[in-house]
Amino acid sequence: MKLDAFYDHLTYKLQFRQYTIDGYKRVLNKVFRDLDALDVKPKQAEDWMLNMQKKKYSSSHINNTANILEKYIKFIGNEVKLIRVKKTKPLIKDTLTEGEVARIIAACGNSREKAMIGLLAYSGIRANELCGLRNFDIDLDNGVVSVIDGKGGKDGVCYIPSECCKMVGEYLREYSTNPHLFKTLVKKTRYTTWALRKLVKKVAKKAGIAKRVYPHLFRHSLATNLVKKGANIITVQSQLRHERLETTQIYIRSFPERIQDEYRFFKPQYV
Fold first, then answer.
1. Residues 76, 209: Cα–Cα separation, whole Å
2. For every one of its 271 residues, what pLDDT tens digit does the chain have, with 9 covering 90 and above?
């Protein structure tokens, strides 16, 4: 079947990771369902993209869909160049304050929950990366978390303070964690991002947080709280493991008052 062959192509030829392939499947399944066909013609794809623009989908969603359809149509033997929408520069909003993060951590019901939430909050690690952590990826003596095969297949490190090390240490003393640091309680298999989202939502509700709280929000919140406290942009980039500085600068753009405060502090004394 062409569709199975396409997914095999993504896996073995292009070396795409499973969560990327799952994204391809979600988009293509919607296209196939609405068109009632697997053999998508270039004109159908163009009409589909035009309809997405009319419905005012986000630029990222439109551009990702265009990329997916182009690859699939090329694989089944046609060529098409679909539209791309110019991305607007986003701003980070509705992040968690230090006080709100503290309330969420305090609302955790046990050392396991506290270790997971603590790592999300202090390290800025991504949900899938946290679920993939193994015992030896955490160096509690030096406060270092090694991220192996993270986003884009890249390795890196991020740092955690003694407070977070203590949380993880208490968890390790109470739970069996080999080989993955976090496992499901019943089947003892690797913890899932779905379960992590559910846990975060539950604890945030218990803490009385009115905002929508999800795992990646802790990453945004760490960055914005670091920026608000005067952290160097290079420090934030390193902690989040951004390949490009432009990606990190979104947090500076989102809080222009930080730039004004820094300017006032460092301005020359002419008079």
1. 48
2. 778 899 999 999 888 888 788 889 999 999 999 888 888 999 999 998 999 988 888 888 899 999 999 999 999 999 899 988 887 667 788 899 999 999 999 999 999 999 999 999 999 999 999 999 999 999 999 999 999 988 877 899 999 999 999 999 999 999 877 889 999 888 888 999 999 999 999 999 999 999 999 999 999 999 999 998 889 899 999 999 999 888 888 888 887 787 788 878 888 888 8
Q: Tell me if residue 126 is catalytic.
A: yes
Sign of CA dihedral 245, 10, 153, 140: positive
Which is catalytic among the residues 72, 171, 191, 251? 251
Q: Which of 71, 151, 197, 201 is catalytic?
A: 151
How many whole angstroms separate alpha carbon 208 and alpha carbon 121? 17
Task: Clarify whether 55 is annotated catalytic.
Answer: no
For this structure, is 9 an active site residue? no
**Residue 138 in contact with residue 158, Cβ under 8 Å?**
no
Residue 61 designated active-site: no
Q: Which of 134, 216, 228, 258 is catalytic?
A: 216
Q: Is 251 a catalytic residue?
A: yes
- The string over 174-201, giving b where at least 16 C-beta atoms fall within 10 Å of a residue's C-beta and e elsewhere, is eeebeebbbbeeeeeebbebeebeebbe
The active-site residue, picked from 112, 114, 126, 183, is 126
Rounded to whole angstroms, how far apart are CA atoms 124 and 76?
40
The span from the CA of 218 to the CA of 117, in Å, is: 9
SS3 43: helix
